[in-house]
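Quick illustration, no need to memorize.
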Amino acid sequence: MNNMNRRRFLNTSAALSCAALLGSSSCTISPQANIDSHSTTLFAEATTQANNPLRSNPETEPITNIVQAAHHFLDGLNDTQREKATYGFTSEERFRWHWTTLNRFPRNGLALREMNEEQKLRALMLLRSSLSQIGAEKVLNIMSLEFDLSSDPELYFVTIFGNPSTVRPWGWRWEGHHQSQHFTIVGNSLHSTPFFLGAWPTKSRSGVRPMLREEDAALELINSLGGEALETARFERRTLMHHVTQNQARVVPLDPVGLLYRDMSHQQQALVEEIIQTYLETQIEPIAQSSITRIHEAGLDSIRFGWAGNVESSKPQYYRLQGKTFLLEFDNSRDGGTHIHSVWRDFERDFGLHRL
């Protein structure tokens, strides 16, 4: 059992995150944000407490801001912490990743639990520099679910690969239970796949659903189908029990199962696009827009939506969207359909390998 209660965690998150995660010393949470009400209040209380010395805009100057934030984080560590947090860029550790709990998959890097308050602030600044506001809020909501599991919400690890630079390749990783975010910087290009997002429970005791539209939009889509279209989309009656690609370093397209985008109605196509947008909007705008542009250029018509398992809410189920450039897998098979694992993969650009 961890020794940090829920209120203290949310208070700390607020104090450390208002400026760090939302990018301003006078920040506010949007009314539409899907975030715990206690956390919302505490974010508001913290607006004058947090101090963000990083002034560049994470949405318009991403690489400069990430490099600056990474150095700011590293400069705040002692020698022992810095040695633990850093690996060479070519280390195999960069491709060793997982989403499960620490006891099932030991992590390398420096955990929030091992940092003082100032160091945690700097770690969160680095995270905020690398994600959109929506992505940052989702990360905090997923972390807060650890309280429902009586687990430690500070067992999330920062690992730096190489020396942060705008010239030489380097990268960093944020990882813990139900999160694995990978960022690779090569010169003036940033790549943020693979990224993994999960949730257990899918709805917290306080009513927060961190992955609401990732789940519900797909349910609306499968239940809008009938006849031959439904039979084509639903390639298995029983759920798969796991996402197929697991934690592979590189992935290739899976079997082309499911219903093609071009064979859907306009309303159904809109739901496919909403699911894609919901995942990509967690990334900073230049990355999200680049991914969306590539998907459109490759052709929306070739995207397939495949479903396995029950078509009712909170029942075991799996779905995937696959296009020419990407694969999204969403598995909600465990614990009676209340335990989400999902991963976004880019066939060409995972870990920035196409630039190396």
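The first strand starts at residue 86 and ends at 87.
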